[in-house]
Write a structure and sequence with these properties.
Layout (H helix, E strand, L loop, with lengths): L8 E4 L2 E4 L5 E7 L13 H14 L3 E5 L12 H18 L4 E5 L3 H10 L3 E4 L5 H10 L3 E4 L11 H18 L7 E4 L8 H8 L2 H5 L6 E2 L5 H7 L7 H14 L3 E4 L2 H15 L13
Parallel strand pairs: 3-4, 3-10, 4-5, 5-6, 6-7, 7-8, 9-10
Antiparallel strand pairs: 1-2
Amino acid sequence: MKNVRARGALRVRDRVLAWGERTYVMGIVNVSPDSFSGDGDPHADAAAARALQQLADGADIIDVGAESTRPGHQPIGDHTERARLLPAVAAIRAAAPDAVVSIDTFKAGVFRAAHAAGGDLLNSIWGASDELIGACAQTGAPIVVMHNKAVAVYERDVVDEMLAFLDNAATRCVRAGIPPEHVILDPGIGFGKLPEHNITVLRALDRLVALGFPTLIGTSRKSTIGKLTGRGVGAREFGTAATVALAIAAGIDVVRVHDVPEQRDVVRVTDAIVRGWRPEGWTERLP
């Protein structure tokens, strides 16, 4: 086994996901009917069923979101987001009491309500506002902080700007009392970035890892993959797999994906090579 970097662990619900031991899979459960991936379903029972299937397929974390963030999406208010999100979170928690559930929102009030309904951590696509940091610090919840930008215009190198943004956000989170091992940084592939920006960021993931915080990446089915492969949203699993393997090689800790069983296999094989991971019961004997 390779030496594991001493960066602590994600600790929620008596679960300990040690950073560096292996790569963790975050499965996506959309309860927004207008999701870009076409897999959104606003019904709570459907969300619970999808979450259970993803857990069975190898997901370590379930990420639940109720507002689409696709280009051209229509923003929704707190009331609509809560009406979709809270029943889904409660249904998932009832069906899977021990599951680690991430809440995909950038509204502090919505997160507090979702946390009370059974959510464990915050996944914010719009960085870390003071309100979001305060909500996580007060509830003891970990936070995923993503780099984003309203307009994809950069006055300096996109990687330099992204790293400065995330480093500043992480510093503010730690100052507010969130443990460093519970501050997870996401470079925001596909958010506030043109395709060339995305490719540039993907080539520099080692610099993100070098900031010293846990890291997450979400490339699943993104439009840049479609642009490179010429494939539609539902046929981008192999393009996604390439980015997942490269991200793991760079040291990324969590991969957020739609196609859990396929990407779980990519993670396991890449982890075996890169991190020295082996499945339980591993033997050198041929089957």
